[in-house]
Design brief:
By secondary structure, the chain is α/β, with parallel strands linked by helices. It has 6 helices and 11 strands. The protein is globular.
Length: about 260
């Protein structure tokens, strides 16, 4: 069984985000970029499944400008067998990414497609659900546990996934092929070792364009404006409980 993992290049989680002066988006020039943390978790889970003997190959996939190759090299250094880069200079929104993933699934025929539940740059949390709908595959979203690491019934070919819901924990049994999106508590991603980083430089990265995959990239969204959140006001020390109640009632209007 092949496992395909979608990974995204985003602004590093430790970087302080700055909005562009024209408020058209977030500043990405001369900013450290890295793999989306949820995608790292998805790739780690795929590698664990392969190491348990339940998968034959892990394929990392990324979409975007040429710099995405660096992110794919990181995925290869972590242990992915090969990588696919869909090069596009256009802004890719979730529906476009889902269509491109569907086209790649048609080419590669994986038994499992794993994605991070969301990217930390746009927080859309849409791509996994959309691609599952386009493929008409079952989906296990926000997976917090994938059993053993995957329980596969050779007769039915199923994957068992545990996910957190408002009422507690929900366990799903998915017929393969299926889509899984990963939550933060699923695992702790490994670090790429220096020997694997060197080996990754010689691993194959196959290139596609949206046109070669017969996917028309068009946006049905328009970003009107991006602004920074308002700065928090300084706290106030009150002298008595009566003053606190007065401020909560007459200034904060919460009681």
């Amino acid at each position: 069984m092949k496992i395909m993992v979608a990974i995204k290049r985003v602004v590093d989680y430790a970087v302080k985000i700055r909005v562009k002066p024209d408020k058209s988006g977030v500043e990405t020039s001369n900013v450290k970029m890295s793999m989306n943390p949820f995608c790292e978790i998805g790739l780690e889970e795929a590698l664990r499944i392969k190491e348990s003997g339940l998968a034959s190959e892990v394929i990392a996939v990324s979409m975007g400008p040429s710099q995405c190759v660096d992110t794919l090299r990181t995925g290869l250094a972590m242990g992915a067998d090969r990588a696919i880069h869909v090069e596009s200079s256009a802004i890719l929104y979730p529906l476009s990414v889902a269509k491109l993933l569907k086209a790649l699934v048609d080419v590669e025929k994986p038994g499992l497609l794993i994605l991070g539940k969301q990217a930390i740059d746009d927080d859309c949390n849409q791509t996994g659900q959309m691609v599952a709908g386009l493929l008409n595959w079952p989906q296990g979203t926000f997976a917090s546990k994938v059993y053993e690491p995957v329980v596969l019934d050779k007769q039915r070919e199923v994957a068992t996934v545990e996910r957190e819901v408002d009422g507690g924990l929900e366990t799903l049994c998915l017929d393969l092929p299926a889509v899984i999106t990963t939550d933060l508590r699923l695992n702790q991603p490994r670090y790429a070792t220096l020997p694997n980083i060197m080996k990754a430089k010689s691993k194959v990265i196959k290139k596609f364009t949206p046109q070669e995959l017969n996917v028309d990239i068009k946006s049905d969204l328009e970003v009107v404006q991006v602004t920074e959140p308002p700065k928090r006001k300084a706290g106030v020390i009150v002298s008595s409980v009566d003053d606190l109640i007065d401020k909560l009632k007459n200034e904060a209007h919460v009681i």
